[in-house]
């Protein structure tokens, strides 16, 4: 039963395209030599705490939880205690990741399972100075009814998920232990700074998109998408953006276009704040052959297109 559940959660939490940089294997059972302050506190309280890693993630657990090699694959780790399971998955995707988007995608699938019920809505949490999103839900029926705490983390192209899954009969008994393990997660995902800085040399500026609006991409990684060139803050969405010198999801190599991912923070219509439909939006920018300072822009998700004419 545990193996079937974990394989299902692996499918839900990540769509592996490249896998993580490290192959999952029997974890190192030594404590870290240079723990940060949070882990130092944990290791002081629990001298026998063990370390396990997957890609650029490390967690710390005690020997009452067993590393389950049979359920651990190239891009996943599994730890069990009785019928409870802690599963970790990772992947490198072809577009920038947002943990809320990851959780929503998995919920769209798991919500079709028999007995599914969302117990706690997705919320942003901080774990060792990194932002994760977390939700809690149940699925299954009768003796096979499970409760799951799912956490997701995303940074540029890298996606990570940690889940605690247990039968209802022992979910509460092991919940605090599981949360301590999940709370020990340390992330060291590399940034994409060099590619972003190179892309910004061509992208930073102001663009008139005609009926599509007026877009400002700033050098500090912030953006504003106004209704028009008046830059009226009563009609705008704004936030941060990431970018790259290639568009991996469209198989467009360096030199032929740019990738831009918008992460909206506010969406204002008629002076009132509204909800955006997604926590991120992916775009491909292709320089126009007759005017290389301008771009043909494609929304990669819904395939809507724009002409961005450079103003500044």
Structure description:
The protein is an alpha+beta fold and 312 residues long. The chain folds into 2 domains: 2-187, Protein Transport Mog1p, Chain A (3-Layer(aba) Sandwich), CATH 3.40.1000; 193-310. It has 5 helices and 19 strands. It has helices spanning 2-13, 37-45, 99-110, 171-183, 193-203; strands spanning 50-54, 57-61, 66-67, 76-81, 84-92, 117-127, 130-139, 146-155, 158-167, 186-187, 205-208, 214-217, 222-226, 235-244, 258-269, 272-273, 281-288, 291-299, 305-310. The strands form 3 sheets. An 8-stranded antiparallel β-barrel has the order 11-12-13-14-15-17-18-19. Strand 11 (205-208) and strand 12 form a beta hairpin. The relative contact order is 0.12. Mean pLDDT is 86; it is low at 1-8, 10-19 and 21-45.
Key attributes of the depicted protein:
312 residues, disordered N terminus, 19 strands, alpha+beta, Protein Transport Mog1p, Chain A, 2 domains, single chain, seven-stranded antiparallel sheet
Short description:
With 312 residues, this protein is α+β, with helices and mostly antiparallel strands.
**How many beta-strand segments?**
19
Tally the structural domains.
2
Task: Please identify which CATH superfamily of the largest domain we are dealing with.
Answer: Mog1/PsbP, alpha/beta/alpha sandwich
Assign a percent range to the helix content: 10-25%
